[in-house]
Amino acid sequence: MTAEGKQQTHEVDLQEVGRLVDALEKDLDGIAGSSPDIQRLRDEVQTLKSVLESPVRHPHRVKDGLHSIREGIEAALDTAVAQGVKPGQYIAEIGRILGL
To answer: Is 50 contained in some domain?
Structure first.
């Protein structure tokens, strides 16, 4: 099986995603200021939270949301680290959830 086929069949644990979103949301609440990268990350977290709360969950939307959050963390890396957030931990967790 190709890596692409494996990635397409990997099931995402929505409870794990929910815990990750909750933890990240708490950490983001503790970041002072409103840099554009941090605000984008907050928006991505809120969007994924809404997807998870929807009665109809589309796995591809959850996966897309996780990818967007990972990209947002990478963009906000310097600000997040300066504020005491451990972005590498979130990036690793997202990769594990996505089966990367």
So the answer is: yes
* Residues 36 and 75 sit within 8 Å (Cβ to Cβ): no
3-state secondary structure of 9: helix
Q: Domain range for residue 74?
A: 23-98
**Would residue 5 count as lying in a domain?**
no
Number of domains, the chain: 1
Q: Is residue 16 part of a domain?
A: no
pTM of the model: 0.76
| One-letter amino acid of 77 | L
Predicted confidence (pLDDT) per residue in 24-61, tens digit = 999 888 877 678 888 899 999 999 999 999 888 788 89
Q: What is the dihedral of CA 58, 80, 38, 97, to 10 degrees?
A: 0
Q: How far is CA 67 from CA 11, 28, 49, 94, 100, in A?
A: 15, 17, 14, 8, 11
